[in-house]
Amino acid sequence: MNADMQQIAALAIVALAVLGLVFRRRLRGRRKSCADGCAACPTEKLRR
Amino acid sequence: MAANVRPPDPGADGRGDLPPHIAAASLPRRASPASERTPVYAMVGNPNCGKTTLFNALTGLRQKVGNYPGVTVEKKIGEAYSQHGRPMKIIDLPGAYSLAARSPDEAVTRDVLLGRRADTPQPDRVICVLDATNLERSLYFVHQIFDLGRPVIVVLNMMDLAQRAGIEIDARELEARLGVPVIAGEAVHGRGVVELRLAMSRAELPLPRHRWDVPAPIAPAVAELQASLSEGDGRPPLVARAEALLLLTDFDTVRVAGSTPLSARTTGILDAWRQRWAGQGTDWSGTLIKSRYDSIHRLCHDVTRRTRTQGPSLSDRVDAILIHSVWGWLVFATIMALLFFSIFTLAEYPMNWIDSQVAALGDWVKSTMSAGDLRDLFTDGVIAGVGGIVVFLPQILILFFFVGLLESTGYMARAAFLMDRPMSRVGLHGKSFIPLLGSYACAIPGIMATRTIEDAKDRLVTILVAPLMSCSARLPVYLLMIATLLPGDALPAGTKAGIMLLMYFLGTAGAFGFAWLFKRTLLRSSPPLMILELPPYQPPRFKDILRHMVERAWLFLKNAGTIILAISIVLWFLTTYPKHPDPAASPDVQIAHSFAGQAGKVIEPLIKPLGFDWRIGIGLITSFAAREVFVSSMGVIFGVQAGDDNTAPIRDAMRAAVWPDGAPLFTPLVCLVLMVYYVFAMQCMSTIAIVKRETNSWRWPLFQIAYMTGTAWLVCFAAYQAGRALGF
Ligand SMILES: Nc1nc2c(ncn2[C@@H]2O[C@H](COP(=O)(O)OP(=O)(O)OP(=O)(O)O)[C@@H](O)[C@H]2O)c(=O)[nH]1
Ligand SMILES: [Mg+2]
Questions:
Q1: Rg (Cα) of chain B, in Å, rounded?
Q2: How many structural domains comprise chain A?
Q3: What percentage of residues in chain B have a pLDDT greater than 70?
């Protein structure tokens, strides 16, 4: 990959990261039933 | 007292497959709605009686369990399946001693049971969990639940402990007397869960038969209040009766009414009766409580038998040492020292391994990709940033292992007891120490745990100081600074652990100091009385602890792979662009020319008095998201700056960093000051959000940011300037 291509790819990744940070809330989706969604909350996976 | 009449046909509800003792109590005196709607069960009982253990067993969820009162502080809805495969909803609730709630966590239980929570369905049926070693006290709360007139299943939990203590309870007799299914069980060992699921699967459940006679002087007041509550306040009839009884038990109306105010008519009736009794010298509250307890006492007397009189239990004998005013502290200090020592010694091997893997990955990327921005993004942004923080996973897990041990053995409550004396000096009681101790892991569950504190002002003070306790997110920052400060293996782990212990001590002392200050100024209230149950010691539940560690590890890695990754990428961009016009410019010149470099120069005057340069400043800003981001930011900044041929760990790059005049940046003094900054500064978005939610306003979180970060700056300023003056 030449330097120009690398630059374009790098900038695209940066843009993705920015979008990810900005829309973090929406990406994560709304949490059900759980009022906090904080680090204290154990994962809600069902064992079965 | 209800007669012991057995129903003639155990299969009355058409389910002959039930164990006879459950079916025996099955004669329904009122059909409960066996509609298509998913039945909703509430799990209630005293704190620490095993509700969440049962809830987890039934639903397969992994809610936190711990051997101290007040683990669960918020409702949690889970789903289970009946024996016939039909879904059932179960609500796990915080433990309570009475429906008249004294603290916010008990209020959650009260409001859910009385159907006041808009976000939670009102339970159709109630699972009452009793602690068999404390039957009488457990029954008091259950007795109040009976007044609600809902079908009840009673679980007699902790039968193993009761047996060991020489208490024998006749579950069949209790069942006959209460008129509801009684299931003897040991939730930790899964005993009784199948029987409970069977009982829950029944289409119809009996209503409690055990009634008590309201004392004659109080009865007319109950009737009048009940009428007013159901007509004027719109309460369902049975809830109205239960609520009337509660209002006549407790002097503090708010404990019963909560945030749903009573109508003027009801308040009028209540006041009129209370005044009348005051005139007659009737102790209405005492009379009601006593008559309830009398009824319970008779019941307990009939169903319990002590097989042997007991000397002091093992727990009592251990407690003679662990809460001793001298030995207790010695043990406490030893545990803490052991914790920090193992963080440095045990964690070293996995840490070195991860370090070498990260370095190998960086080398591999460098050797396979041609030079360019994308390669730099991978090595200096992603690998330096994320890899720099993942290295600290072992230490964080060790911390959580220790905290898990403290929580599951029951030592947590002893630590709180021990702390009661110093805590009362600052105007708080030992109960506040449980949230504070929990904040060593993370301030967020710590702040949630303050819901067990009765006094609103005490609770607020505890919330305000909880983030001063050094949380696990500070651990990577401390470790990085200690590694930079004390190069190589020249110094024994003891010294490093000592510095670490000092930081934890500083944070704890800060929390105490500010609690004292706030109690004296902003939030005055009378010194509280401490009532805290000391649960019996239990062997640690390694499975639970390991599971919790896996959860935390996953959370940590997820954070590293999402937020920290994104911040590292963005930071890489900010330190790389705009590019210097001269492509051959040295990395130092290039980074100074970048966005981050320019922004850093703007903020540098603010932090220069603390001995920090703009690169540290960038780290301080990015770590507002979360403290550990500081470490990844240092990784990115010094990775970019070190140029292409760097694969050394960040700490080496940091140690080589200099000011423009060539003086070293990370002198031992600066490393220490930086650690002190992180001890005090409020650098955590999630904590701010939780404080906002728990205090219902922006006022307190903003105050918290201001006072903590202000203190951090002042203390660091004083420390740095003093250090400089002393020649460091
Ligand atoms: N020996 C014994 N221990 C039990 C039993 N059931 C639960 N435990 C332990 O008791 C402690 C408390 O259990 P939890 O399920 O957290 O209790 P809880 O009622 O949810 O407590 P809160 O949420 O504080 O109200 C834990 O250490 C459990 O392992 C039992 O039947 N026998
Ligand atoms: Mg619980």
A1: 30
A2: 1
A3: 92
Which residues approach ligand 1 with their CB closer than 6 A?
Answer: B 45, 47-53, 65-67, 69-72, 94-95, 157-158, 160-161, 186-188, 408, 538, 541
Q: How many CB pairs (< 8 A) connect A and B?
A: 95
Which residue(s) pair with B624 in the sheet?
none
- Rounded Cα distance between B493 and B636, Å, is 28
| Collapsed DSSP state (helix, strand, coil) of residue B469 | coil
Helix, strand, coil percentages, rounded to 5, for chain B: 60, 5, 35
| Cβ atoms within 10 Å, residue B167 | 20
Q: Are B224 and B269 in contact (CB under 8 A)?
A: yes
Q: Please, is B134 exposed, middle or buried when counting C-beta atoms within 10 Å of its C-beta (0-12, 13-18, 19+)? A: middle
Whether B553 and B350 have beta carbons less than 8 Å apart is answered as no
Give the C-alpha separation, B519 to B249, whole Å. 31
| Shortest-distance Cα residue to atom 11 of ligand 1 | B67
- Per-residue pLDDT, averaged over B563-590, amounts to 85
For residues B595 and B569, give the distance between their C-alpha atoms in angstroms, rounded to a whole number: 14
Write out the two tokens for B333. Answer: 């200090």
Pull the structure tokens for residue B179.
């008129």
Dihedral class, residue B234 (left if φ above 0, else alpha if ψ from -120 to 50, else beta): left
Q: Residues B649, B360: contact at Cβ < 8 Å?
A: no
Residues B54, B129 contacting (CB under 8 angstroms) = yes
Q: Pick from B407, B44, B47: which is nearest to A40 by CA?
A: B407
B152-157 and B182-184 beta bridge pairing: parallel
Alpha helices in B392-431 (DSSP H): 393-409, 411-425
Token pair for B228 = 């007013």
Tokens of A10: 């790098």
Q: Which atom of ligand 1 is nearest to the CA of B410?
A: 27
Summarised one tens digit per residue, pLDDT across range B423-448 is: 888 888 777 888 998 888 888 888 98
Distance of CA B95 to the CA centre of its chain: 14
Peptide bond into B701 cis (omega under 30): no
B574 near B596, Cβ under 8 Å?
yes
d(CA B414, CA B233): 44
Residue ranges of B 494-533 with Cβ closer than 8 A to chain A: none
For residue B25, pLDDT over 50 is answered with no
What are the Cα distances from residue B705, in Å, to A18, B629, B691? 26, 18, 11
The position carrying tokens 């020592």 is B341
The crossing angle, in degrees rounded to 10, of helices B393-409 and B542-559 is 150
Is residue B345 within a helix (H) or strand (E), and if so which, with residue range?
helix B327-345
Q: Which residues sit opposite B81 in a β-bridge? A: B87
Q: How far apart are CA B354 and CA B376, in angstroms?
A: 21
Q: What is the pLDDT of residue B530?
A: 63
**Under DSSP, is residue B463 helix (H, G, I), strand (E, B) or coil?**
helix
Task: State the Cα–Cα distance between residues B467 and B688, nearest whole angstrom.
Answer: 10
CA-to-CA separations, B65 to B137, B407, B541, in angstroms, rounded: 21, 9, 10
The CATH class of B37-200 is: alpha beta
Residues of chain B within CATH 3.40.50.300 domain(s) are 37-200
The domain in which residue A13 lies consists of 1-48
pLDDT digits (tens, 9 = 90+) for B265-314: 888 888 888 888 888 877 888 888 888 888 888 888 888 888 776 667 77
Model confidence pTM above 0.90? no
Residue-wise pLDDT for B206-256, tens only, equals 888 777 778 878 888 888 888 888 888 888 887 888 888 888 887 787 788
- Who's near B480: CB < 8 A, 6+ residues apart? B630, B631, B634, B650, B651, B654
Q: Do B461 and B518 meet the contact criterion of CB atoms below 8 Å apart?
A: yes
Query: Which residues are within 5 Å of ligand 2 (an ion), measured at CB?
Result: B 51-52, 71-72
